Amino acid sequence: MSDQDDERMSNVATAAPGGSADCSTVSSGHGLPAFDALWMDLYSRLSDLCVDQRPAVRKSAGQTLFSMIAAHGAMLEKSSWQTVLWKVQCCLIVN
Question: In this structure, is residue 24 part of a structural domain?
Fold first, then answer.
């Protein structure tokens, strides 16, 4: 990891409840760098809410998901974009 990634991870760790972040569970399923795995977890969870039965939840989750990708997507490594496209966005199209 680069120094910039270390700084981002420490910021995430201090913002997490209890003051620490455990990325092992997040990154294990995707094989992504730890920082990207945190974003992927957020994107995946919002993607799940985009197909919720409640219209207001679907609308808000979709707006938030695409706003987050637009605002923070540049922070992802290029290799992580394939995962975002196939595991998040394509799932929305299918569902």
Answer: no
Which residue is it, tokens 């496209």?
A: 85
**Rounded distance, CA 16 to CA 37, Å?**
15
Distance of CA 16 to the CA centre of its chain: 15
- Say if CB 34 and CB 1 are below 8 A apart: yes
For residue 2, the model assigns a pLDDT of: 54
Question: In total, how many domains does the chain have?
Answer: 1
89 in any annotated domain: yes
Going by the DSSP 8-state scheme, the letter that residue 90 receives in this structure is H
Query: What pLDDT shows up at residue 7?
Result: 57
Asked whether residue 55 is assigned to any structural domain, the reply reads yes
